[in-house]
Amino acid sequence: MAAPPAFSPSSAAATEPQDAGHAANQAPEPLKGLPADPNTAQQQVPASAAVPPAPAQVATPLDQLGDSPQWIDCPFCHRRTLTRVSKEGTSMQILAGILCCLFCVCLACVPCLAGWFEETIYVCTQCNKKVATRPVSGPIIVHGPQATVPSK
């Protein structure tokens, strides 16, 4: 297999169509903004244009979790991962719905739609284990692996 012919500016000028305003023996214009020597391209890049490394995600302590997914160090799988946040209604929510129903049947769904008496559940997205629970009232309850007690 034969190698293709080498490129030369004169062969490129011969294959391009000529405009009436340009002379046939005029050299092509170099591209603006590019270095003439490709080896100097790395020397001309400013240091501020370099991409910095991605910052490490900061883990949130389990007793300080909020209502949105946050990065944690899972006590079960020992990985840094995001939490999945869900809300579950309690039996108090059902009782409030029954009491609202006594006034008007249409009000029975208000406690569920308004989010009254809901617990917030935090789950690890890697191992799918419940890492913390925020009850309706009170502080966050942190769950962890059960320590095994050796038998005597």
TrEMBL record:
InterPro entries: LITAF, LITAF_fam
Record-annotated LITAF domain positions: 54-136
Region (Disordered): 1-68
Transmembrane segments: 94-117
GO CC terms, sorted: membrane
Claim: Cytoplasm is one of the keywords in the record: no
Annotated GO MF terms: zinc ion binding
Swiss-Prot/TrEMBL keywords: Membrane, Metal-binding, Transmembrane, Transmembrane helix, Zinc
Predominant subcellular localization, coarse grouping: membrane
Subcellular location: Membrane
Biased composition (Low complexity): 1-14, 41-59
UniProt topology in membrane: Peripheral membrane protein
Positions in coiled-coil regions: none
Assigned protein family: Belongs to the CDIP1/LITAF family.
Protein name: LITAF domain-containing protein
Organism: Thermothielavioides terrestris (strain ATCC 38088 / NRRL 8126) (Thielavia terrestris)
